Amino acid sequence: MVAQLATTVTAPNGGMNGTLSSVYDGVFLPEFTPWTSDTVWWTGLSPVLDVDLGGLQSISGYKLQADNNDSYRLSYWDDSLSSWQVLGDLPALPGWG
To answer: Residues in the chain with pLDDT < 50?
Structure first.
């Protein structure tokens, strides 16, 4: 669980609003919560959030609560390759909320 591992969350490109610690606090908001209510949101088309797990970790899965009309890419840093690797691309979903 990220809530147990994360030590810091940063927004290297800036443009973030809200409390970055909500990214890993383990709280999932009710469906239809307004996107600016106790959330992190951004401006621009290339937002980046870095979640520092404080060292090498084994991760068996992830959960993402996000706005449905946007797509997201999750990546991880591979020390052996010295580059970011894509963990998953999450497409936008139809509907509202």
So the answer is: 1-3
Listing DSSP states for 48-70 in one string gives --EEE-SS------------TTS
The closest alpha carbon to 42, from 63, 12, 62, 64, belongs to 12
Q: Which two tokens stand for residue 91?
A: 């497409």
| CA gap 75, 84 in Å, rounded | 6
Burial category of 18 from C-beta neighbours within 10 Å (exposed 0-12, middle 13-18, buried 19 and up): middle
Q: What is the pTM of this model?
A: 0.75
Contacts of 86 (CB under 8 A, 6+ apart): 73, 74, 75
Structure tokens at 28: 């999932």
